[in-house]
Specification:
Layout lengths: L2 H11 L4 E7 L9 E8 L8 H12 L7 E9 L1 H5 L1
Parallel strand pairs: 2-3
Antiparallel strand pairs: 1-2
Helix pairs in contact: 1-2
Length: 84
C-alpha cells in the first residue's frame, strides 16, 4: 500500500478534509507492513475527542491496519486547531 491509496481510503470517509499522508521509512524486519504519518484537518472533528478522531481514521483504513499497514501516526485537527 502506498500513500496515495491511504489518502483515497480516508477521503471516502472524510471527503472535505485536508489530508497529507507521509510514507515513513522503517527498518524492522519483524513487521511487513508500511508505516505512515497522516495529518488531517476537517470540520468533522469539531466536538470529537482525540480517541474518536483516531477511530474515524482507523475505521476508514479498515482491514489494511495490521496487514498492509503496520503503523499509522495520526494528527487530526479542526481548522481552528491547525491555525493555532
Amino acid at each position: 500500500m502506498d500513500a496515495q491509496q491511504v489518502e483515497s481510503l480516508i477521503r471516502e470517509e472524510l471527503p472535505e478534509a485536508e489530508i497529507e499522508v507521509i510514507e515513513e521509512e522503517h527498518e524492522d524486519e519483524r513487521s511487513e507492513g508500511a508505516h505512515f504519518g497522516v495529518v488531517l484537518v476537517s470540520d468533522e472533528f469539531e466536538g470529537m475527542s482525540k480517541v474518536d478522531r483516531h477511530r474515524v481514521v482507523h475505521d476508514a483504513l479498515g482491514d489494511s491496519i495490521g496487514g498492509e499497514i503496520h503503523a499509522v501516526e495520526i494528527r487530526a485537527q479542526t481548522p481552528d486547531e491547525a491555525e493555532g
